[in-house]
Amino acid sequence: MQGDFYIFCSLSHYSTVLELGTGCGYSTIWIAEALRQRGGIVTTVEWHEQKYLIALEHFKKAGTETLINPIHGNIGDVLQSFKGKQDVIFLDAVRTYYVDWWRYIDDILVPGGLLLVDNTLFPNPDDLIPFFSIIRACGMYEEVLVPIGKGISLFYKKN
User: Is the pTM of this model over 0.85?
Assistant: First the structure.
């Protein structure tokens, strides 16, 4: 899995990534490394305090702390007050909230940007049906499923 996000970000022109669900920071570090060559930055949001603190330690050990803007807080609250646009949004959080977050995600993502949704094949892919239905209904996104790891759905926001 280490190379998945690195490849997505390295092969593109993207320089800003918003990650929703930091966990221990593993994916964040790979994204940050991919963005390093363009001076990009990853903003990552985690609500769970223990995971957030562990991720901060991992960022420091990996030498990526200057490439990462970590935020500890409720993802929904952060999205409501988020300033600026992002080239990529990476969703790896509690999927039952995705539908509620959609209006903010769509507003924050730039035209020509990518929405990446992790773990779309396993576990419980049916949990994502309502969220994916909303995205498809708006008619502004092209979609592809990449069957690596537990599956990543990519949604390209049309210009």
Answer: yes
